[in-house]
Write a structure and sequence with these properties.
One of its GO terms (molecular function) is phosphatidylinositol-3,4-bisphosphate binding. The protein has about 675 residues and is mostly helical. About 70% of the residues lie in helices and about 5% in strands. It has 3 domains: about 130 residues, 3-Layer(aba) Sandwich (Phosphatidylinositol Transfer Protein Sec14p), CATH 3.40.525.10; about 200 residues, Methane Monooxygenase Hydroxylase, Chain G, domain 1 (Up-down Bundle), CATH 1.20.58; about 160 residues, Methane Monooxygenase Hydroxylase, Chain G, domain 1. The protein contains 16 helices and 6 strands. A 4-stranded parallel β-sheet has the order 1-2-3-4, with helices on one face. It has a two-stranded antiparallel ribbon with strand order 5-6. Helix 1 crosses helix 3, helix 10 packs across helix 12 and helix 12 packs parallel to helix 14.
Length: about 675
């Protein structure tokens, strides 16, 4: 179980059962168990626990006597665990302690609950009241795995050694024959190695982690030689397996080298033969998009044929690189030469294909840009040939913006055409560098003349459109200005109408005293100045509209009724403003006179001797009240009141209150002064 006695000797437990026990099987089992520990461990001796609680006395006695023959030297103590009901004394008259010298070890009879007198509880399993964790089935499974691994690894080591040693001796033919006959071992080395690593990991985990937080249980620890044996076998397997892999690699490398040499020559012969001949026949760039696309399609067919050989090249290059990384020195020179030859031919052919593809793509882009630019010029010319029908300023602005955008697009298109054309010319000038000695001057001249002719034609068409755009732009800007003046004039009328509406609805207060009324009068004059500026601004805009109409030789559709509307609103504003000024001036006179009478000192009654002053104030107040009820009459006969009736009622009530104060003051002055006793 992994438990140890107080002398650090291992504890061997023999559980006996009710069934008949085979002494032969027990002897074989004990021989097997005693073969597991190391010699150092055996030297410390064993303590044997014979569990006879479920067996008969004669069986127990036979087992104890058998220990003398199986392990006499190693056994130091035998503990016979007796049942609760002890055997009959007649049966148990045999005294083991008297036979100690003959047996070679001490035998004691002990109950299970008293076994801890001889062995620590932590070294006993739960069957004997101890705390040592032990699972016999788990130990048995691990031992079977260990035995299987030992057997397979030993057999595999012999096979691998035979294969590896055979590959190191004899001639090349003998070496190949040895490898062919013994190339595959009977078991998979990877599987055996994995099994060994898992077993070692399990043993180490149990050794260091213990079980459920208790005392570590290690019945297969270093003393039982499990871990050292597994580690030693794993090291040997890894060494032989590495040599075996090297043997396989060498064989595979030699086969690969022969295949690579054959494939390299196939690739080189095709690329330098049929592949190069296909490229020699392709030189033109086409004179239109369709022609360039047809040439591209033909080139794609050529590339497709080359791609199959390039795929072979990539595969060969990877194989050569792998052999170079793991090859022998005698193969390096040959491999590098093959790789260099293959790379030179493939890169040269790929460069030619790429150059041809770039040239055709540049030609297609040039013709595409030329076609787009031609369509843009046609669209711009179509816009310029249609007369401008004035609708409103926004539509004219939109049309002008569209015209400018089209012209800008044409400029960008022509610039892009020049760039594409110059790039294409540069590529054509480099075309002769890989012409295999073929004279392509004539074909290049045709291509160059075509490219330059297209660019010059587009430049002339663009210049004609620019001249027409300048004339159209001037006319459209004048039309935009005309509509802008008309819109601003109409806006001035709206602003003036809003000022008139604000004057009638919000300018209703007359002030609570003379000072406030003067402030309102000053604000009103500034308000009138704003209205005057608005009216003048509208008149100026309408005058500019007349001048623009004469320049464009057209009649404005909106300015005809704007001037009468402007004059009508201005006259209404003028009449309303004058009425507002008259009311404020009357209110100033009324408040000034009333405040003078009400604020003068009553010790000087001579200042109020004339009743004309009171009558004048009363007359001014009544006149002001009467004006508050009278509407503003415009030149066209229409009428309009200031503010709402409640606003006018509030203003009138304040005037009446002040008139009452003046009247009360008048009555106070009329009363004679009371006589004093001295008078």
């Amino acid at each position: 179980t992994g438990g140890k006695d107080r002398r650090s000797g291992l504890i061997l437990t023999i559980p006996l059962c009710l069934e008949q026990t085979s002494m032969d099987e027990l002897s074989v089992t004990l021989d097997y168990l005693l073969s597991i520990p190391s010699e150092k461990c055996k030297a410390r001796g064993f303590t044997v626990i014979v569990d006879g609680r479920k067996s008969q006395w004669n069986v127990v006695k036979t087992v104890v006597l058998m220990l003398q023959n199986v392990v006499p030297a190693e056994v130091s103590l035998v503990c016979v665990v007796k049942p609760d009901e002890f055997w009959d004394k007649k049966v148990t008259h045999f005294c083991f302690w008297k036979e100690k010298d003959r047996l070679g070890f001490e035998v004691i009879l002990v109950s299970a609950n008293k076994l801890t007198r001889y062995i620590e509880p932590c070294q006993l399993t739960e069957d004997f009241g101890g705390t040592l964790t032990y699972d016999h089935m788990d130990w048995l499974n691990k031992r079977l795995v260990f035995e299987k691994f030992t057997k397979e690894s030993t057999s595999l080591l012999d096979e691998l050694a035979l294969i590896n040693n055979g590959s190191d001796k004899g001639t090349q033919q003998e070496k190949e024959r040895s490898i062919d006959l013994n190339f595959l071992p009977s078991v998979d080395p990877e599987t055996v190695l994995q099994t060994g690593h898992e077993l070692l990991s399990e043993l180490q985990q149990r050794r260091f982690n213990g079980s459920d937080g208790g005392v570590s249980w290690s019945p297969m620890d270093d003393e039982l030689l499990a871990q050292p044996q597994v580690m030693k076998l794993l090291d040997s397997l890894r060494e032989q397996y590495t040599r075996y892999q090297e043997v396989c690699r060498q064989r595979s490398k030699r086969t690969q080298l022969e295949e690579i040499q054959q494939k390299v020559m196939q690739v080189v012969n095709w690329l330098e033969g049929p592949g190069s001949e296909q490229l020699r026949t392709q030189w033109g760039i086409g004179d239109s998009i369709r022609a360039s696309q047809a040439l591209q399609q033909k080139h794609e067919e050529i590339e497709s044929q080359h791609s199959e050989w390039f795929a072979v090249y990539v595969e060969l290059n990877q194989q050569i690189a792998a052999l170079l990384n793991a090859g022998d020195e005698e193969d390096l020179v040959e491999l590098k030469a093959l790789q260099q030859q293959l790379s030179d031919v493939c890169y040269r052919q790929a460069s030619q294909l790429e150059f041809r593809q770039n040239l055709l793509q540049a030609a297609l882009e040039f013709h595409s840009v030329a076609q787009d630019l031609s369509q843009q010029l046609d669209g711009l010319l179509g816009m310029l040939c249609v007369d401008v029908a004035p609708a409103d300023g926004a539509s004219i602005q939109q049309t002008l913006k569209l015209l400018e955008e089209k012209l800008k697009s044409v400029d960008l298109g022509l610039q892009g055409l020049r760039e594409k054309g110059q790039s294409l010319l540069d590529q054509i000038s480099n075309q002769a560098s890989w012409a295999y000695g073929k004279d392509v001057t004539i074909e290049n001249k045709e291509n160059v003349d075509h490219i330059q002719g297209v660019m010059e034609d587009m430049q002339l068409r663009k210049q004609r459109c620019e001249d027409m755009v300048d004339v159209r732009r001037l006319k459209m800007l004048q039309m935009v200005q005309l509509f802008k003046c008309e819109e601003d004039a109409a806006q001035a009328v709206e602003w003036l109408s809003e000022l008139l509406d604000a004057l009638l609805k919000t300018h209703t207060r007359l002030g609570d005293d003379a000072q406030e009324t003067k402030v309102l009068l000053e604000k009103h004059r500034k308000f009138v100045d704003v209205a005057q500026s608005t009216y003048d601004y509208g008149r100026q805009l309408l005058q500019a509209t007349v001048v623009l109409c004469q320049s464009l030789r057209c009649t404005s559709r909106s300015s005809g009724d704007t001037l009468p509307r402007l004059n009508r609103v201005w006259k209404q504003f003028t009449v309303t403003s004058e009425e507002r000024v008259h009311r404020l001036e009357t209110a100033v006179a009324f408040h000034s006179s009333a405040e003078k009478i009400l604020q003068d000192c009553p010790e000087h009654p001579e200042a109020f001797s004339e009743e004309e002053q009171f009558d004048e104030i009363e007359a001014v107040g009544k006149s002001l009240l009467d004006r508050l009820t009278v509407p503003v009459v415009y030149p066209d006969g229409s009428e309009q009141y200031f503010g709402s009736p409640s606003d006018m009622a509030s203003a009138a009530e304040h005037i009446r209150e002040k008139m009452k104060l003046v009247s009360l003051k008048k009555q106070q002055l009329r009363q004679p002064e009371p006589t004093t006793p001295e008078s």
